[in-house]
Structures are given as C-alpha cells and as structure tokens.
Fold:
Amino acid sequence: MKITDIMKKRMTFSFEVFPPKDHQPMEPLLDTLEHLYGFDPDFISCTYGAGGTNVGRNMEIMKTIKESGKAIPVTHYTCIGNKKENIRKDLEKYLEIGVNHILALRGDFPKGWEETRGDFDYANELVEFIKENFPEFCISIAGNPEKHIQANSFEKDITHLRAKQDAGGEYIVTQLCFNMDNYKRWVEKIRKAGVTLPIVVGVMPVLSRDPIIRMTLTNGCSIPRELAEIIGRYWDNPEDFKKAGKEYTVKLIYDYINTGIDGLHIYTLNKWEDVTDIIVAAGIRKLKEVPGLEEAL
Structure:
C-alpha cells in the first residue's frame, strides 16, 4: 500500500531516523527501531549524511525496516553530487530490496559548495527523472513553512514547491516549524498557488537548548515567544529544559493536528526514550508491547 492511499482514509503517523557514521555500530539504531515499531508507525524515513555520505548504511536501514514488515520504509535522496547513471543504480537497488517510497530533495550544499555538482540543480528535476524512469516509486517532496533559507522570497519558494508537485510529487513533508501562525499562512499561500498535495507535518522534539537554537537558526526558522521563554527560563538547567520542552512538543502536536494535517512525522533524533515520553503524554498512539521496553522505561 502507498502512503498516499493511507492518507485517503486517515492521518498518517511516522518517524524519521538517521544512520550512524561508518565507524559507529548499527545496534543502537536497530534497538531504536524496535522501540519505535511499538507505536505501529505507518512509515519510517531515513536520512543519510551530508553530501550524500552513508548511502550504504541508509540502504541497510531501509532493508531492515522493509524486512521487519512493521512500517513502510521511505528513503531520502538528494541531487548533491549525483549523476543520472548513479541515480539509476541506486534506485534500482532500492527497488530490489522492496523500497518504493522516496523523499526527493535537492539537499543542503556541503561546506564550500555552491552548486549540486550533479546532473540536477533542483529537486523538481530529480522528481521528474524518478517519475519518468521509475514510476514504481511514491515520491514525497519537502515543504518549508517559513521559506527555504536560500530562497529570496516566499513567492520563489512556493513556485519551486508547485514545480515539484507538477513534476510528480505526491505528498509534502514539512521542515521543522514551531510558529503555528507562520505555518497557517504558508498553507493558505500554497493552496492559492495551486499546490493541492497532502501535507505531512514534521515535528522536531524540543529536548535540549543548543541543538534547538542551532537547528532553528541554521534553517531560518523563527523561535516563537513560548519557546523563547523555555529557553530563557531553563537556560542552565538541562533537566528542566527537557521536561518543559517535551510539554511544549506535546502542545505543538495538538496544535498541528487541529489544523487538519494529513500526517504527523516525528523527527526522532534517534532518541526513542524521549520520543516515547512525548507520544505517550500526547495520547495519540497506543504503545504495543515491545521486548525490553518496560525495563528501559
């Protein structure tokens, strides 16, 4: 079943994980996946390293998720450094292991790069290539509720989003956004621009001070008053910051669901314990029995 078919019936629920570096063991992530399966996710997406590194480990994780039979595996894939010949080989390998869902991205430039250094400069070109040559794939595309940091206007950013839709994108997965007013304005703008695709909202758990500040600023995202107060109030108290941050994340989930989203996608940061606390507190997904889960909690 395609993810878009599930969306026709109900809101999807999903996670994002990232692969360990080549010199790091795979076991911690495999353990994380086992615990995430306890929430019966519809799909789990997996990133890979900056500049297209760790593709091999990404594929290994996709294969593991597929063989588990417990979630649809969705691979990320970028234009960075990728030539058509290599893209063909990679996509054929994904199909061979039963992975037919993909998030097509331009990708962030590695340090010192000013272009993709591949055959495609923009994600819509990658989407079109996949659609024409590998119609088996269900293609998702990225959306930026507060505008991509490299776009010089909302109009340009939304035009590119429309181009990705028209090239064959089937649903949108948003980048992190803590500002609900900005999200609602963005939805209104893209709908007026003719972007009709379902929207899966990506939610970044608020767990520690420095990563949240870094991720919001490097992605050009705003920090709303409520989150700023948490940062200021618990600046030097990591434990209380995490507690308040989890409560804030639960409220954010409620706010998003009440806008009528088509899917909720949790950026886990590979921290299943904290994600478990948030989902259980939100009461939006029943936790199935997973070996070792009660002891770990």
